[in-house]
Automatic annotation (TrEMBL):
Lacto-N-biose phosphorylase-like N-terminal TIM barrel domain: residues covered: 5-436
Name under which the protein is recorded: 1,3-beta-galactosyl-N-acetylhexosamine phosphorylase
Superkingdom in the source lineage: Bacteria
Domain Lacto-N-biose phosphorylase central: 440-657
InterPro entries xref list: Class_I_gatase-like (IPR029062), Glyco_hydro_b (IPR013780), Ig-like_fold (IPR013783), Lact_bio_phlase-like_N (IPR035080), Lacto-N-biose_phosphorylase (IPR012711), LBP_C (IPR035356), LBP_M (IPR035363)
Coiled-coil spans in chain: none
Provenance organism: Kineothrix alysoides
Molecular function via GO: 1,4-alpha-oligoglucan phosphorylase activity
Signal peptide: none
Lacto-N-biose phosphorylase C-terminal domain residues: 663-714
């Protein structure tokens, strides 16, 4: 029997018959348009929900051209330029694409721009520089051989996402879409009235899919139309004098461009956020949520559902922020590239349902000669499936141009396989929660729950190469039998919750993920030492607790049993010996993958055990600290084997090794998820090869299973 529902398919004007065929074949219950397309009239009478993409900030060039002062703005920072004389000229738009960005000469540069001597860090007084409007240069009274930058406002005269789609799809004739600022008074009124008219003119549309609301994440192109910098969490394009004056009244202090440009780092997710930037985030979330609610209320007045796309102009609507639930959305949809991004969507509260757009996107950069869309779909599903079993999405769907997918040999069969497995999960879990361990695991960083399941992401499950060795930690956790919390250092200072048994700190030194100067706060280190001493577990990956201070690099080196050699203690001999016999490695055969790892890690203290070494230095170390345990990994990229290692490490750190085998499979390429209330268990094969595994329930062998490649087998867990 074909199960139906829970699936959204994209369509296009020239795909009417094929859309209907695939809708029936796959059991889809919703249809959607895509960027650059429109819902065909012939499909509006189909027995399916109809989604329409709605843009609040673009696709209205007439309005933008008539109101140039209300076009969206972005804070930019010029190149660093060295003065070779006492007068320096800095060309503002050097390195930027002038079709995307235009210097704001409407608002007073002396009020809203900033010139900084980067050699001293001092702000150059406004009387020591002038703006030359003809050449678009800032002329500075400079100190010879000091470096300078100019932070300035620019109008976004080409919407960044439209520009990205334009370049990716090699569009030739489509006009560039301007992006206007809905926060501005005139534009705000215009956009609300336009939404009302649209709702009246589109009675057959059931779901208004906002893409998204008001402020684009930072996506800036260079003069060659290449991406210059991308920050999916960036607030650089959520600024204007109108907004900043409001912020100053709310915050009680003067705004500086530096709060946004951040020395040229643009407040990357990896930066420890300043108080001022955190204030700006909160202010924007308050204001954006208020205005977004007004838009959602309009949609509801016309009997339609309001859905938000988790991307594009999503700044200020972060779903784990304090104000998101006030918006009143019916649903959130986002792109799913792995288990982490799936949990980022499926864990959202305050909406009626969540939907994941699975990859690959039906775009010509994948569906092309040399592309492997079937392989990408399989890899995507293997990671997403683990997380769905733990925290299920309500719906899945696809995006892009359906004709590309329908013409690719075998791809529709792959979609059919994925959709059927997704429906089976819901059929067997029946709305109940999967079994989890009797304790919580916490991930400690500077962002905490605000960036829940978002750590280290560029966007759409694309992660930075440099964090390959750390991102595996949260990818592994996304499909593990644990309730996972994301906590900040303030949470540590205020007291660790009693139900947290293991805390994980992973990342490079001085980043927001490791913690930087937080580790020289006595409140933080003493609280964590007490936590472990009393039986808690601490797991560090990469450079946890790192900050060079008082003769130590890892400030929790006594708890971790390791430190990193920074060449200051080379004169102190280290006598590190390997002893790989340990609970953590019992299932593991062959080499352990530590990714790029971390160099010069040495064990120290009296209670450590080195489980893996690389020459003189260590890569995996456990340590006893009072009643508690710690585990150190030099790196932990995602793989089925590393999932098993981390699983064992967590149970060991918690002091609950025996609990791990309540529900347990022997093959590291397999995992089990149990729904005790329905009596069903899913055993999944995470490999593209056939695997044999044995399932133990309450310590006894229950099933001996031969699984096909990528198979999900449902069994009775009450046997």
């Amino acid at each position: 029997m074909l199960m139906t529902g829970r699936l959204t398919l994209p369509t296009d004007i020239d795909m009417v018959d094929e859309t209907i065929r695939l809708k029936n074949l796959l059991g889809a219950d919703a249809l959607r348009d895509c960027d650059g397309t429109a819902m065909p009239e012939e499909l509006l009478t189909q027995s399916a929900k109809k989604y329409a993409t709605y843009y609040t900030t673009r696709k209205d060039n007439d309005w933008a051209n008539e109101n140039p002062e209300e076009i969206q703005q972005e804070y930019l920072i010029s190149d660093r330029v060295t003065a070779r004389d006492t007068k320096l000229r800095i060309k503002l738009m050097k390195g930027f694409h002038t079709e995307q960005l235009k210097v704001n000469i409407i608002d007073d540069p002396k009020r809203w721009w900033e010139v900084v001597d980067r050699t001293t860090g001092e702000v150059v007084p406004v009387y020591k520089w002038e703006f030359d409007g003809e050449t678009e240069e800032v002329v500075i009274e400079s100190v010879k051989y000091h470096q300078y930058t100019v932070s300035f406002l620019a109008f976004l005269v080409w919407d960044p996402v439209h520009m990205y789609n334009f370049i990716t799809n090699d569009w030739k004739d489509a006009p560039h879409q301007l992006t206007f600022d809905v926060r501005q008074p005139k534009t705000q009124i215009h956009v609300k009235e336009k939404l009302k008219r649209w709702c009246e003119e589109n009675p057959h549309i059931d779901v208004v899919r906002f893409t998204t609301f008001f402020h684009q994440f930072t996506l800036t192109f260079d003069e060659n139309k290449r991406e210059k910098y991308v920050e999916w969490f960036g607030y650089s394009a959520s600024v204007s004098p109108y907004i900043l004056e409001q912020f100053e009244r709310w915050a009680g202090y003067k705004f500086r461009p530096e709060f946004i440009v951040d020395q040229g780092y643009h407040n990357s997710l990896f930066r420890v956020p300043s108080k001022e930037f955190r204030d700006f985030i909160e202010f924007q979330q308050i204001e954006v949520s208020k205005l977004a609610k007004e838009m959602v209320d309009i949609v509801h007045e016309y009997g339609k559902e309001a859905m938000m796309f988790l991307g594009d102009h999503w700044i200020g609507t972060e779903p784990f922020g304090k104000y998101f639930q006030d918006i009143g959305l019916d649903a959130v949809v986002g792109s799913v590239g792995d288990g982490v991004t799936l949990r980022m969507i499926s864990d959202i509260k305050g909406v009626k349902y969540t939907e994941g757009r699975l990859l690959p996107y039906f775009f010509p950069d994948v569906f092309c000669e040399g592309g492997d869309p079937i392989g990408e779909a399989q890899d995507n599903w293997l990671k997403a499936r683990r997380a769905i079993l733990r925290s299920p999405l309500d719906r899945i769907g696809y995006g892009g141009y359906l004709k590309l997918a329908s013409k690719w040999p075998g791809f529709i069969d792959e979609i059919k396989y994925v959709v059927n497995e997704f429906r089976l999960i819901h059929e067997n879990m029946q709305g109940t929660k999967a079994y989890v361990a009797p304790f919580k695991v916490a991930v400690l960083n500077c962002w905490g729950n605000l960036r829940r399941w978002m750590a280290n992401q560029v966007h759409h499950a694309i992660w930075h190469r440099e964090i390959y060795s750390y991102v595996g930690v949260i990818e592994c956790l996304s499909g593990m039998p644990f309730d996972v919390e994301f906590i900040t250092f303030d949470d540590i200072r205020n007291g660790i919750a009693e139900d947290i048994k293991v805390i994980i700190n992973a990342g490079d030194a001085y980043t927001s993920f490791s913690g930087a100067e937080n580790w020289i706060d006595p409140e933080v280190v003493t609280s964590l030492r007490e936590f472990v001493d009393n039986g808690g577990g601490f797991i560090g990956v990469g450079e946890p607790t790192a900050y060079q201070f008082e003769g130590r690099y890892f400030q929790m080196s006594d708890v971790l049993g390791v430190d990193r050699e920074m060449c200051f203690s080379l004169s102190t001999d280290k006598y590190n010996e390997l002893d790989a016999d340990h609970f953590i490695l019992e299932d593991i055969e062959g080499n352990v993958d530590f990714g790029e790892g971390m160099s010069r890690i040495y064990a120290q203290g009296e209670n450590y055990q080195i489980l893996n070494k690389d020459g003189e230095y260590s890569r995996l170390v456990v340590n006893d600290y009072g009643k508690g345990h710690s585990v150190y990994f030099a790196g932990l990229p995602y793989s089925p084997q590393n999932c098993r290692i981390l699983l064992r490490a967590i149970y060991y750190a918690a002091g609950m090794e025996s609990e791990m085998k309540k529900f347990y499979v022997t093959n590291v390429d397999t995992e089990v998820t149990v729904f005790e209330k329905t009596g069903k268990a899913a055993v999944i094969n995470n490999a593209k090869e056939a695997k044999h595994t044995e399932l133990y329930i309450d310590g006894r062998l229950a099933y001996s299973l031969d699984l096909n490649p990528m198979e999900m087998r449902w069994v009775d867990c009450r046997k």
